[in-house]
Known about the structure:
This protein is α+β, with helices and mostly antiparallel strands. 27% of the residues lie in helices and 25% in strands. The strands form five sheets. Strands 2-15-17-16 form a four-stranded mixed beta sheet. The protein has a four-stranded mixed beta sheet with strand order 4-5-3-14, covered by helices on one side. A four-stranded mixed beta sheet has the order 6-7-9-8.
Amino acid sequence: MPPSMPIARPLTATPGRALKGRFRVRGEPNLTTLMLLLASLARGTTVIYADTSAPAPEVAAALALLADLGASPETHDDRWQVSGLGALGLLAPSRGLQFSGAPRLLPLALGLLAPYDFAARFEAGPGLGVPPALIEALRGLGTTVDAVRTGQLPLTLRGARLGMPFVWRAPAAPGDNWVEAMLLAGLGLPGRSRLEGLAVLPEPALRLFRHFGADIVDFADANGLGLTIAGLPKLGARTLAPAGDPDIAALAIVAGLVVPGSDLVVENVPLAAARGGVVTALTEMGARSSSSSGGRRPAKRWSTCGCGIRRCSASPSRQPGWPLPTWRHWRWRRHSRLERPAFPGLVPLIKASDISSLRRRCRSTALPRLSMPAA
């Protein structure tokens, strides 16, 4: 019997009232997680300003991880305060470390604890594991990795009694946060460790490492790009705020443009999103918006006007990671029915919890209501 094919269902879009007010984009979860881990290795109290009421799963797991390692963060309404313990200052956990629902935190935690000469047990629900290539990279540091099944949790990690700097050659397609994990491992080892064969450099993460005081040098050779990092540095406490999530920033900007009569200020927009293809394409489609810098941080305020948008021709390569919007994507007609949604990435974004946050924070407004009939 042939496998069942998904049934195409119509999508009904009903326009809402104009969006008016201010919306601050929440911090990008991956960078927020890295901030927390680096803060635990710094000396002094690091203050991270963010909306702490409902942190992303990765951030919540990172907070629990730091509490288990002795760097208990303090949670306030608008910030986290982390009292750093310095390089190699984290304490042995008294229980298993949980990573359910936090797949991108797992490699970072492995790199963070790889230099420590104590046993740490990593646990998670079904479906979350560690690629064998990353396990071999950790073993190359002298770390012992014991797992019931290779590549699956639970596993127990114990660093070498006498750490040494390492040379790691990246695979052709490293996973998420592998480079950042190896940089965290390099911070806990003496000498200068070396990462080679990188196709691209994780620039936002590198800026964050250097902001805390890490000594990182990038280079290029016949094998590609590379990094060297000095171990056991004296990282300093910082006061900072994570840049906004670019996906949510783009969603908020589009929402303010397609709803007629809107006057929406989107704050904490990362420069990468502000300069990206989404904004460029929308501007060519007739969108009226303006931007202003928000101080020294790499973020902007973006003011949008619900003026509607028109058809344009542009190359999809100008919008990395986003489907190119065309005229049929944004024809908001009353009770219009789209038999084949041309922009499938929009629906899961609109279903995200951030839309309810956007509705709450914009005074006297309502977003377009989307409904999909049951199968």
